[in-house]
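HUMAN: Forgive my ignorance: could you write out one protein's sequence and backbone structure tokens?

ASSISTANT:
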Amino acid sequence: MAPSTRPAEGPLGAVSTTDAPMHRELKNRHLQMISLGSAIGTGLFLISGTSVQTAGPIVLVGYAIAGIVLYGVMRMLGEMAVAHPVAGSWSAYAREYLGKPAGFIAGWNWWYVCVVVCMVELTAASEFMAFWFPNLPRWITTAVCLVLITAANTFNVKAFGEFEFYFTLIKVTAVIAMIVIGIAIIFGAGDYNVHGLQNLWAHGGFAPKGLGAFMISLVAITFSFGGIESLGTAAGEVEEPARNIPRAINQVLLRILIFYVGAIGVMLIIWPWDQVGTEGSPFVLMLVGLGIGGAATLLNIVVLTAALSVANVMTYSNARVLYDLAASGQAPRFLAHTNARGVPVRAL
């Protein structure tokens, strides 16, 4: 996708009736991390274990297929976001070109998805916290995290961008380190009894549960990538959208695909697929099983950060779509309000 040279404005740019306009303070690096941050979370660090148990090593093919399909979707979304860089994203596009009912359905569907995914991530965070505090009630962890994330989103959008940038940087660095360490183990570092790539087919074959199980696993696999489309809802607050949106889309998909296929592939080579745990992060449980306890503790901090990062992006995206719905008369009008810092606090 080549950056457009025409003005990044269109008929959707004036739907809002707020007290103050949203501020375009998100830079390209923020947009990159919002995309990565929303996709690298529970899907990779927790639900991947369920996907592996459902179908076996063939899930690697599933992640590759889902990544290719997602790239096509994001390219199309990017074209629309460059032409109309507004917070309502696909809800606004559907309303403009398909009619108000389509925009209503698309917007409220995404609002609901954001709520559900945010709760999934916070639930995962409570599971990760149980690694250290097994007797702490899960609802306490969830409630505290929700309050903190909501508070973080009340600052200006630049503060949100910085928060997400560093949180995502932590987990991206950890995934890269995990892949590098895994490759080192595969090639003989330490004494972990890894014998080449044979774990990929030595326990019932590459597709031990058949094609039907593989098709079922695609549900969880596709969910794992969910959230990356939040990049569209950030279009209304990004600097130079005609330049930064194409750059973000063109660069981020390959990275995510490498992270998913690379990290899960390394895990399946080191650890038999039928022993991949689902009672917590499969990566943490693998390290514990290998006797690398210190690394497991460090990785659990990372996966906790990852879950909170995704919940943070979902909270941000949720508020922007609800704000757009309200500004368009498809949600209560009082929600179409931004404060002096350009934050849609009522929608939030």
